[in-house]
Amino acid sequence: MTDALRLSRSRTFPVGVARAFDAVLPLPLPQLFDRRYAALPAIREVRDQDGEWGTVGQTRTIVLADRSTMRETLVSVERPASFGYRIDQVHGPLRPLAASIDGLWAFEKAGTGVRITWSWTVHPSSTATSLLMPALGRMWQGYARQALERLEELLVT
């Protein structure tokens, strides 16, 4: 199998680390990822989630605007520093590209606020599709920028 694609994007917000962590972890995904970017669709709904998102081992089904789905599993919660998840069972246009995705949200003190970094490690489905990883990476950077801009609206107002 080919090397994974590692991506990350950060932004600083004028709120405390714990407050940011506590707001982001349970945030409804359609509220944060409400716009598409290039070929990456918005998230329209989340299904099969039991209770508030925040317990290691929880799973949910993410439904995108193009009706494709993927399963997300919460794999780590280290309050207030980070939480991680794994996306698999990818169906739809991303399926040929990504076998799975490891995601991480990290929170660190930055001056009087917090620096939030969102990272993805994309595990390509095959060597052939690994050739498309740079294009996926460029799209993801725009998608992440939009999400962090939206997060500022949600955290600061």
Automatic annotation (TrEMBL):
It comes from the Bacteria. It holds the Pfam family Polyketide_cyc2. The lineage of its organism: Bacteria, Bacillati, Actinomycetota, Actinomycetes, Propionibacteriales. SUPFAM superfamilies: Bet v1-like (SSF55961). InterPro entries: Polyketide_cyclase/dehydratase (IPR019587), START-like_dom_sf (IPR023393). This is SRPBCC family protein. It comes from Nocardioides hankookensis.
